[in-house]
Design brief:
By secondary structure, the protein is an alpha/beta fold. Helices cover 55% and strands 13% of the residues. The protein is built from 11 helices and 6 strands.
Length: 217
């Protein structure tokens, strides 16, 4: 079972999300929080696999809670769930190690699929969030971020850089394998090694770093 925490300051929203998630036979909602601080504490005490975090919450907002979770409960995969789809929120959530970003008007099946993807170690972006990220990447890397990203890339070998460049293009392991004439399993091994070397939480975070560095552009 995938153990899920729901953090939202509106009881009706939490109830609706709980109803959707518990309709899946492999998901269990084990805790609910009305603010970010409580979410961090409950994630620590309930052995949560995936946390759904609203952005606008009292005491501690969802993005701050996301950063706290990364420090206090690093094994938890966090999905940001909000009505606010601004590009800055999407990018901040992903750069802080979030496993994905969903809007509250997402279809029930999309919500369940995102939780499953996060629990499996993958990242999930709603179509709306993907558009925001694409718009940002199209604008090109900021100078300071680009320099820092290129410095971090120095630990990678040539083949690892090739794999990372394809992550920056948004390719799946299977598609990257076909492009590089590798098996999907081999690409997966490279991705794991890249994430460890770059100290990234997930492949989306690594892809953003690649784009900041200008890799693959």
């Amino acid at each position: 079972m995938i153990r899920v925490l729901i953090a939202d300051d509106e009881p009706l929203i939490r109830a609706g999300i709980r109803m959707i998630l518990t309709s899946a036979d492999d998901i269990e909602v084990v805790a609910e929080a009305a603010d970010g601080r409580a979410a961090v504490e409950l994630a620590r005490s309930h052995r949560v696999d995936v946390a759904l975090l609203d952005i606008r919450m009292p005491v501690m907002d969802g993005l701050t809670a996301l950063a706290e979770l990364g420090r206090a409960v690093p094994g938890v995969r966090a999905l940001v769930l909000t009505t606010f789809g601004e590009r800055e929120n999407v990018l901040r959530a992903l750069r802080q190690g979030g496993a994905g970003f969903l809007l509250k008007d997402s279809a029930p099946g999309e919500l369940i699929g995102a939780v499953r993807a996060a629990a499996a170690g993958d990242a999930y972006l709603s179509p709306a969030a993907t558009r925001h990220v694409a718009d940002s990447l199209a604008a090109g890397p900021a100078t300071a971020r680009g320099e820092e990203a290129r410095r971090r890339m120095e630990v990678l070998g040539e083949r690892e850089r090739e794999v990372l460049a394809l992550l920056g293009e948004g390719l799946s392991n299977a598609d990257a394998g076909r492009r590089l004439h590798m098996s999907e399993a081999t690409v997966k091994t490279y991705v794991s090694r890249i994430l460890a070397k770059l100290e990234c939480e997930n492949r989306v975070q690594a892809a953003l770093l690649a784009r900041d560095a200008g890799l693959g552009i």
